[in-house]
Amino acid sequence: MFKNRKFWCPCNQYNLWDNREKHQNKHLFDQYSFTHISGGFFQYILFKKYGFLFNLILHIVFEIFENASAGIKFFRNEYDIYKGDTIANIIGDLFMFAVGYYTISKIKINNILLFITFEMLLYFVYNDNFFLVFYKSFLNFLYSKKV
Questions:
Q1: How many angstroms separate the CA atoms of 143 and 137, rounded?
Q2: What is the pTM of this model?
Q3: Domain-by-domain residue ranges, the chain?
């Protein structure tokens, strides 16, 4: 899976953040980095009793699926330019997951309210968020199987 994966964007510009369409998932961070913060929130809410290490491993498993051919096909149903992440972007995604997990574990307000508020913010800023990425991709995947 990672054998033919580039470490960084082939453009050889070592930007930490690049949100231009052809550079999505190629640099350390992009707009989808924020969905990994939401992922950290979501996993903390669901699985906090198992601890950070368990949740990090779960997120690593997700990254492996997301960048395997089946995962790329799954997400391409909605995001047709998606070709998988670079190694740098995977590292950035895992870092942002950890930021989300740690943040929600330290903030003393309603965790579900924080998650929903952050999701709404992402929707208004990027017209996309953690929930919609999976919802749209899953529905398109199901629909494409019926055709």
A1: 10
A2: 0.85
A3: 21-146
